[in-house]
Amino acid sequence: MKHKIVFFDMDGTLFQTTDGIIQDSTLAAIDRLKNQGYLVAAATGRGLNMLKPILDRVTFDYYVLINGGYVLDGDFNEIGAGPIARSDIQDLVELAGNNDLGLLFHFGDSSYIYNNFYPIYDFMKYTNSLDGVFYDQTQSFHHRHDPYQAIVLTRDSGIISDFIESHPDLRMDLINVRTNGFAYDLFHAGNDKASGIETVLEREGLSWDDVIAFGDSTNDIRMLEKADLGIAMGSASDFVKSFANRTTTSVYANGIFNAVKDILAEEE
């Protein structure tokens, strides 16, 4: 076989976010890959605590979590991490408090709401990711544990853009969702799924030539572009699709199964 490892985005790719479903055809496709000797890995913006509805049905060889900020092997041992600097976190806590922004932090295996509980709670519920989410009224958990990502809810894009501009070690992705305002992922500027994947490749002695990657969103672009075979889901925007080698059908229309079927036929 030409390729050796397959990385899957979760939401909108392997996992139907709004209804919490993984199609049986997707599970069958993953089993076929494993039986043919491929390594199968998750590459997601989710933290480990938010993967429960997925891990109940799928076991991965590696976990590239929190947009590459936290990387685990198949036994959930940490093999790579890129936390946000404590000083940047403290500035963000103050920004949220002074401007009434919704704020949540993803740590290694838990998530803590700091500000505006219900908008953040509603967002996490909408994305089927309430497992391991707690409320820290003291806003102090980051003093004892490393945060790898923040989620900020606000309708004021300028306030986030200004904050990022004054904090060059951070970058952001916009998530437009049907909740109270817009959601922004903030994380260390050096982290993305591609950097997390490189940690896995180094450990396995592989290169990007060995990689197949599936994704549907802007945070998947670099891994789709760098993979030898990048596959965009049918629901992806034309912009995201432009970075992939090919496109499959959507997560609701057996997208993973259809692509894997073609790939295995080609590689056999």
UniProtKB/TrEMBL annotation:
Cite the InterPro entries for this sequence. Cof, HAD-like_sf, HAD_sf
DNA damage listed as a keyword? no
| Key words, A-Z | Hydrolase
Q: Where is the signal peptide?
A: none
Question: What is the protein name given in its UniProt record?
Answer: Hydrolase
Q: Name one GO molecular function term.
A: phosphatase activity
- Does the keyword field hold Hydrolase? yes
Q: Which Pfam families match?
A: Hydrolase_3 (PF08282)
Q: Which GO terms describe its cellular component?
A: cytosol
Q: Which Gene3D superfamilies match?
A: 3.30.1240.10, HAD superfamily/HAD-like (3.40.50.1000)
NCBIfam families assigned to the protein according to its UniProt record, in alphabetical order: Cof-subfamily
